[in-house]
Amino acid sequence: MEQEKKGGFKSSIGFVLAAAGSAVGVGNIWRFPYLAAKDGGGLFILVYLILVVTFGFTLLITDIAIGRKTGQNSIRAYQTLHPKFGFLGKLTFLVPALIITYYTVISGWILKYICVYFTGASEAAAQDGYFTNFITSPVSPIVFMLIMLALTAFVVFSGVEKGIEKFSKIIMPSLVLLIVGISIFSLTLEHTDANGVTRTGLQGLGVYLIPNFEGLTFSRFMEILMDAMSQLFFSLSVSMGIMITYGSYVKKDVNLDKSVSQIEIFDTGVALLAGMMIIPAVYVFSGTDGMTQGPSLIFVSLPKVFDAMGAAGTVIGPLFFIMVAFAALTSCVSIMEALVGNCMEVFHISRKKTCLIVGVTAAVGAVLICLGYNALYFELTLPNGSVGQLLDVMDYLSNNFLMPLISLISCIVIGWIVGPKWIVDEMESSGHAFKRKKLYRIMIRYVAPAMMAVLLLQSVGVFTWFK
Ligand code: PFF
Fold first, then answer.
1. How many Å apart are CA 184 and CA 190, to the nearest integer?
2. Whose CA is nearest to atom 11 of ligand 1?
């Protein structure tokens, strides 16, 4: 059988941990806490949780069921789903092809920070300008990116069961232990600053969890909703072919309904814990000022926090970056597997050869992204108003444009052309109940396409009404 020939997950838990490995990544650790801090703490969390169990579950189920039912990767799977929509598979393939070029670069930065802590350079890393000097330097970011890419290629080359499944089974539980440990530690922190103001970790937890309705208007609520929705996409790794690939490796007797719930709980749990770990720590040592957007949170604010912790920081700092590296590596593996799986299927070449070709091509793309901070530096105003350079442009193209577009068309194809029954049948084929069947039908036909259309229009700058 085709499925056995290409390998697959041996156990249901192996699949769940591999999919959770893809979902849990840098996005959970820097982006979720930052958005929560920016968007009214508990209010953002509440909106996000509602979206996970409605919208997130719909998209995750759609991808995984398409993969398992067809036993194919995205390019072929969409062709099988509906011959007229084969183009959707090619479009989907583009997303991991774009993402791998910059996700490996960011993962390389994490590796660099592990080295910083092991070589005793943590004090230097806490100085202003350290991060910028590093990413704009010509050679070092390329070297760290290449190491991360090589590690990724090694796991993917080892195969689905012996590589991805085995690796995720070790890494994911270790990641949870580390994040729980550091979060508890974060809550016990207390610090008095130069002005004599004492802040505690529990106060920081309040900043994170208590909903802030101050100044809440309709347009502000829409902004929070859109932030939560785009975060959900990236966080669950949906609409980029990855979950179709992983779905195609799942055995027919696995209860997909239960597995999807476990993946959602894992991904959301880690995001919530990441907030519990980061927000109180940053709040205690830097107040709310340290909560700036993007990479600067983990590469600029946190090294300052670890430095301020004194002796404890020399242990917590490296542990934190090791944990983020685990999360990044399992995500890199899933991105590469989606590319390798598709290429093996379309061109009928061996896993070894495909890993080599995909690895070298990704390395070329990622070198260009690294050079985007020096030789190839430019600034471009994106359609949604933000200004970015090469890495931001790639991120925008994949997350803000392609992902909502693919999702929108997929929802229309499944909801209105092929019909939700196509997915429902696959969910029930193992003999287990599909508990949220009714919700799925409503979401895939009405709510999800409407929300996707709004997200897409907002991303391309059509909506300015809530700015
Ligand atoms: N879901 C990952 C995160 O939250 O960091 C990111 C990710 C993984 C994005 C895999 C895209 C991807 F293909």
1. 13
2. 237
Residues near 159 by beta carbon (within 8 Å), at least 6 away in sequence: 7, 351
pLDDT digits (tens, 9 = 90+) for 124-162: 999 989 999 999 999 999 999 999 999 999 999 999 999
| pLDDT tens digits along 337-350 | 999 999 999 999 99
Verify whether ligand 1 is closer than 6 Å to residue 100 (CB atom).
no
Which ligand 1 atom sits closest to the C-alpha of 236? 1
463 — pLDDT class (breaks 50, 70, 90) = low
241 pLDDT band, cuts 50/70/90, is very high
144 lines ligand 1 (CB under 6 A): no
Tokens representing residue 307 in the block: 């430095």
Distance 203 CA to ligand 1 centre (A): 31
The two structure tokens encoding residue 425: 């049948």
Q: Using a 6 Å cutoff on CB, does residue 458 contact ligand 1?
A: no
Tell whether ligand 1 has an atom less than 6 A from the beta carbon of residue 394. Answer: no
Residue ranges of alpha helices (H) inside 39-85 are 42-51, 57-70, 74-81
User: Where in 87-146 does DSSP place strands (E)?
Assistant: none
The per-residue pLDDT for 1 is 39
- 231 Cα to the center of ligand 1, angstroms: 10
Nearest CA to 95 out of 339, 332, 331 is that of: 339
26 lines ligand 1 (CB under 6 A): yes
Residue 294's pLDDT band, with cuts at 50, 70 and 90, is low
* Ligand 1 contact, 92 CB (< 6 A): no
User: pTM score, two decimals?
Assistant: 0.93
Element (H, E) at 262: helix 256-286
Distance CA 455, CA 143 (A): 37
